[in-house]
Amino acid sequence: MTNVAAQTVVPSSDRERVVEFTGSPDVATYLSAVDNSVRQLARTSEALVVSLGYDTVKGDPHGNWGFPPTIFAKIGRLLADSGLPICIVQEGGYALHALAACSYAFAAGLLDQGVPPV
To answer: Cα separations (Å) of 86 from 18, 95, 116, 118?
Structure first.
């Protein structure tokens, strides 16, 4: 899932997902899309490779979305619930003041260390 302009990215296989939003989605809409994508991918995959960017967090100078860092705990939990091995490649996020909170929340969710409310 990525925040790119409509129809500028297409999946290269059935094991790749692109979800387009018209503008910044709310937290519930975004998490629902992540959940749906993870479930679909889990059906045909032996592992998940995730390019994890924190540029959707509020205040990121390169993003225009406004999610709180705690959303990453929910995303981590959704990935862990797939039951598949997961490889994380952290690749974005430029709101330096929020990176530690985003990373902590993601790891807490992934490792089932408690998921704070979003």
So the answer is: 18, 25, 22, 23
Tokens 């909170």 label which residue?
Answer: 101
- Sequence-distant (≥ 6) Cβ neighbours of residue 74 within 8 angstroms: 31, 34, 109, 115, 118
pTM for this structure? 0.88
Is the pLDDT at 26 greater than 90? The verdict is: yes
Q: At what angle do helices 27-44 and 71-80 cross, to 10 degrees?
A: 20
26 burial (CB, 10 Å; 0-12 / 13-18 / 19+) is exposed
Q: With beta carbons less than 8 A apart as the criterion, state whether 65 and 56 touch.
A: yes
